[in-house]
Amino acid sequence: MTREPVIHVAALRKTYGRTVAVDEVSFDVQAGEIFGLIGPNGAGKTTAMECIEGLRTPDRGLISVLGMDPGRDAYALQERIGVQLQEAQLQKRIKVREAVGLWASLYRKPVNGDRLIDQLGLGDKRNAWFMTLSGGQKQRLFIALALINDPELVFLDELTTGLDPQARRAIWDLVRGIRQRGKTVFLTTHLMEEAERLCDRVAIIDHGRIIDIGTPTELVHRHCPERTVIIVSQDSNAADRFRAIPLVRSVSSEGFQLTIRGVGGELVTHVIQCVAEHKILVIDFRTEVPTLEDVFLKLTGHMIRD
Amino acid sequence: MLRGLWKLTWLEIKIFVREPLGVIGTVGIPVLIYVLFGRLFASPRRDAADVPRVFSVDLPILASVLIATSTVLSLVAIIAIYREGGILRRLRATPLRPYTILTAHVLVKLLFTLITLAAMLLAGRRYYSLDAGVPLVSFTLSLLFSSVSILSLGFLIASIVPTARFAQPIGTLILYPMLAVSGLFVPVASLPPTLRALARVLPLTYAVSLMRGIWHGESWAAHGGDVAVLFVMFLAFTAVSAKVFRWE
Question: How far, in Å, CA of A302 to CA of A286, rounded?
Fold first, then answer.
């Protein structure tokens, strides 16, 4: 018996004038997972997310969040979810701890605001005015506001925009920590690396449509089964030996570098066995496994950054 | 459900005070102008016939009305700025209700109305005496009561106007004609019929009548009609704005 999904979206549709921002989008988010809606900017991620949060009204479709209707039960829902918006502002001269304090006063069971401020690395900016914060610091403040009520379900929209790699990793750890405490995370991102590192499952969206849904590994296996092994060897027979491997499609050479392309998860194993069997002297050995970015390109015909 | 109202109100007061220009504009300048006008126009110093009544005798009322209108304009502007800047949007994804946010701003405006009035009357008491004949408490109450009603009109404008760019002009477009027909400068009875009709549907007209009456010692009972109309308008404007409030 499967549990009730935390978010259930069916045939969601939202248009703005003649632009169809979200087109027949359907997916479920299960309890306790980190689910990513991934796609390029303008794909409809934020629109879809904000419809689910109850900030926008869809034209058509069914949305259920924690068993509630985000349009009708907006206030009850806001008690139990945490929302981090992509583009948000606060009063210019509000202090960090004042914002956190205000938010904390709005909920029945807030967490310790001061600790949250420290956890997000804003400890020494506690009394700083909002307008003096850097982009990354503002982002972290908004994350704090999304977590202040210890929500069961957290919405994160383009979470690490404007953050340097160090801060980005710290936030990723924080998000994993949220999931570890049994919460559910629904995030959007256009960064494939973020999706691969964080998400249990992803839904790829482009031009308002869901292209496919699955775990990152599943999607790669399903759409990009190719594997590449790059070997540097001075053995002149190596290329032919590799061509003989059943899974191998092509072997190209450039000087001493051989690029072996084939299909299937066992390709790498077969190449290694071939090397061992024929005692091929290998100077360098590298594998390339396709990423979600490759999956996206395969499925949509364009790069995610176009 | 007014959770967060006091915290938000106190916070907005602190934030307002952190911008010195805002405080100077809201409190400092009206006080300055009041005192200046007092020096120039107050009755004992000038031939009463030369100076329009509004500047000689009714200045406290005029001043109060100007405080009220300026608070409305700034309320409308602030809401528009919050809306445009995405602050309202951020507040929306919380259990905060729109009327809590508006109420907080109104309370802040009322507080500064009080402060400005007090500062003004104290600073200018040489020209406009505050002797026993002036019912200060009653007058202050009448100003606050009128402000709430006029501010609810501001609510309505703020709920509907989409951007900060339009907020000021639209607010001004409504407020200054309202001021002109309110009976401050010309008695309402002397206005041409259309303007008189307009005056009767605008809250400021009743506010002026109420405040002028109280200042000159008349009883609240005598102005029961004004009070009733102001109250009804407040209810009506508030109800409509709650329905049509735009978060973005």
Answer: 26
